[in-house]
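Supplementary Methods, section 5.1.

A reviewer requested that the exact input to the structure prediction be made available. We therefore reproduce it here, unchanged from the version used in the analyses.
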Amino acid sequence: MVEKKLQTKKGEVILARDFSEEYIRCLGMGEGLGIFFHYRYEDAHKTRNILTAVSGSPDHWLACAVSANCIVGYVAIVGPEPGSRWGEINTALLKSSPSLADPVLLELGSVEVSTPWRSMGLARELFRFMFEDPFFEEKIVISRELSWHWDLRSSALTPLAYRSMLLRLFESAGFRYCETDDDEIGYVGENMLTARTGAKVPPEAALVFYRSLRKTEPRGWGWG
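The structure derived from this sequence is encoded token-by-token as follows.
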């Protein structure tokens, strides 16, 4: 297990990653952590079960912020779903750069911070801690941000303001905004796709990835 101490206005927090399932089972869940942000005790319990499963999976990665034996924030990264558009892109990346380990394409599964611990930069520190792992330098990590998952009620932000806040957070961890014609992301204007390309991802793999974000090339001046 890798740990790092972090001082905050509410006291010391332990950032942890590469831990066992047993580590999660012994922790409580902070206020406001729950599936789709509609907090109930059952949702927090389900979320802890999901985090336990993630910590025991070889194709999932998890970093948590812990205070007083309670999870007060986490970042989860997962592999692409087989049969999905992102799974197909992962297959294309492997063909373009056989030296890379499967999976090349990963996805930000979720990032949450307990309600009393927000606005203290904890999510930013969790991202920084997660991506200190050199493992991610040979990976492309995407984040599909869908506005119906956002905690607009607690934040008192408009969807566009919340989107801007998330984009700043992701950019601090090396993510960049990407244009895509993905149907789910294009459903409403606030949704967005961002991606973090590791420093050791070959240029040919990065090119395959960015070209795959649109099924057709835009047509207009210079496109024949």
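Confidence is low (pLDDT under 50) at residues 36-41, 219-224. These observations are discussed further in the main text.
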